[in-house]
Amino acid sequence: MLRRLILAIPVLLGAVIFIFAVLQFLPPGMRVAVYINDPRMARFWEQVAQENGLFDPVYVQFYHWLRGLLVDHNLGLDANDVPVFNAIMQRLPATVEIVMFASPMIIFVGLTMGVRAGANKDKPIDQGSRILAIMGTSLPSFWFGIVLLSIFYAGLGWFPPQRYGNEVMKYLTSPGTPWRFHTGLMTIDSLINGEWWIFIDSVRHLVLPITVLTLLNSAVMVRVTRSSMLESLGKDYITAAKAKGLSKNEVVNKHARRNAMIPAITISGLMIAGLLTGVTITETVFSMGGIGEYAATSARLLDIAPVIGYALMSAVLFVLSNLIVDILYAYIDPRIRLG
Amino acid sequence: MVGEKSLGISFLATLELALSIIQINLGALLFIIGNPLPSIFPNLDVGLTGIVLIIVGIVGLVLGYYMWSGQPFGWLAAVSLAVADLVLRILLPVMFGASWIVFAVFLELDVVILYYLTRPSATAFFGGEDIRSVLDKQRVEMQPRLKEIGFTLKLVRKSSLSIIGTAIVLFYVFLALFAPILAPPGDISQGGDAMMIWHHGESLIPTAPNPVNPFGTTQGQFDIYYGCIWGTRSALRIGILVAGGFLLIGLIIVIVAAYYGGWMDEILMRLTDIVLAFPGLRLSMALIVVLVPTGFQRLDAVMLSLTIVGWPGYARLIRGEILRVKNEDYVEAAKSVGCSDFRIIGRHILPNSIYAVLIVFSLDMGTIVLAAAALSFLGLGASLGYADWGQMIALSLNWIYGNPSSPFQYWFTFVVPGLFISMFVLGWNLLGDALRDILDPTLRRK
Questions:
Q1: pTM over 0.95
Q2: How many beta carbons lie within 10 A of that of residue B391, not counting itself?
Q3: Which of B373, B401, B418 sits opposite A154 (nearest CB)?
Q4: How far, in Å, CA of B157 to CA of B219, rounded?
Q5: Contact between chains at A280 and B378 (C-beta distance less than 8 A)
Q6: Which residues does chain A have within 8 Å of residue B377's beta carbon, measured at their own beta carbons?
Q7: Facing residue for B374 by CB, picked from A274, A281, A302
Q8: Contacts of B282 in chain A (CB under 8 A)
Q9: How far apart are CA B184 and CA A332, in angstroms?
Q10: pLDDT tens per residue, range B75-101
Q11: What ipTM was reported for this prediction?
Q12: CA-based nearest residue to B19, from B82, B69, B71, B97
């Protein structure tokens, strides 16, 4: 366990150095933009660069940069002169809300489909899981999202894009509204505020992004669960369980499934970490206003600070969640826990 | 037993190998820097010439390899490859109008090689007095391999997925090669660049399919049919170049690192750790945002960033394969009889670990094109009007909702380019899956 922890530190440090090294490709004149929050100051960029130490030796710059990151959470200013850290924090709830609902769906679909497909090899359900896997790897998520929008929004008018509808927007911004934000998550806040119509509205807005994420992301889980299911069904204890006369359902549900789920749990941990650090494309297609969309919009304008900050934040979160998954894994897997 | 190596054959083989490497590099360079000598080749189709040069160069590499090694059926392979090379060199420029001069430079070598292969010294090298006896001998030697090839073909025929996958991939290769015939360029709005989609007028509102625009036009009046056909070329180009970059980096660095081990291996693996700590798409976005202001063309930045993000996966895969093969008994045996490292890597390790790489190459073609399309969709890819599927879908974003009376009015703006991407990725994925079942020696006889 401790070894894991120690191994994670150089990777984290390496990721930070890597991003810093990438930034060094830019001349000081461009890097200084993240410190300038007044267009009239642009003429004095050399002075600003001097003040912020952009002409210092690289290791001094790195020290200051890292210090700024760790102490002040300083990721620079974006094109609208909002500190990137604040901008990301402000948009985080939208992303968290999508992931919060999407991950259980993905895990549920992935595990049930995978276990069923593994237990019924070459039966229709297995072929179905194969089609799902091919779809998941071949369909571009942005296109799939657009097609769903075209059918369920343009055609049927059921599930609109964006985070909330116009009436909700009006209600939230009207003066004297009794609405209070508690968590920033629309679904939970609407329940706390007792506004059922807002709850229904936000669920309607969440259906399509969650569908896209579920269909495309569960494919990997289905394949992994299926193959580990097949593997554990070939073990001796399964033969023993069958020999003592257990029904097929009991063998599958009580004996094979538990062990088959271990790799799937690892995968799902990593997947949730990947989703949490932004579902860039899905957010952009449905204009959900999360951190992924923020990064994409900034990237389109070649606004460096938000994109770099986003990449850095994703890497840190990703490494940390890897670590957590590893530790959890050690508790779940009896071979490691007791070994 | 292989005969004495004749001076002529060795010389020609070395020359052929060297020239092939030069050609592959030339082809890659054409992609990267564009037309190097516009004054000499005013009408050079850079993309096409590049692809052809790379293909011909790879054929040449294999030819040189067979001439060098004196493999069991080396003579037959060398002759057929030389003929194939010659035919390709004449056929491709005639069919697609690629530049003659580039190909003519290397043409004579094939003729010389063919002549030399029929000389007594060459036939003696491959183990016979004259051509007929060489052929007889090689027919016997080839029996087991032919049987194996026959078995592979039987597996291919039996798996419908592989046939569908191959058909789809071949269809796209056909589209890319015949793009100038299927969708002739030369409209005034393209400004002389065939990769730009032609458009008449600037109106934002898409036009429905009509005789002039078979699939209609998208936002900005860009012709969807033209964009989809020529988009095949940019997709293939991105896929081949990035996957080729993976392959080159992976093979060169990792063979050295994994075979010799030690501190080089350690450093490499730590490097892959660091790159893999970033979720892929986010790192490519960050790299592009930094690369573009420093003077990179947008598409080059996309390809470079995808290569930087993707190579660790390859490196790990190849390293694992090599470490697995390295401990096999036959490598141990080769070492104990005193084979050189070069020979062990080339003859024993590579052929046995190449399957995994081939399969992943095929699967990655789809993934790379998907990632590039996603970046284009986010607005980080090619400039406006460049034939690129991802961009065409980005252009359709405003037209998902038609109008209250006919909500699907502009369906063609996203359905057609989306189908092109999905089928492309599907084809490569199916092909990769099928290749795994067919080529992997541990799976094929199950």
A1: no
A2: 27
A3: B401
A4: 44
A5: yes
A6: 140, 142, 281, 284
A7: A281
A8: 277-278, 280, 295, 310-311, 314
A9: 62
A10: 777 777 778 777 777 766 655 555 566
A11: 0.84
A12: B82
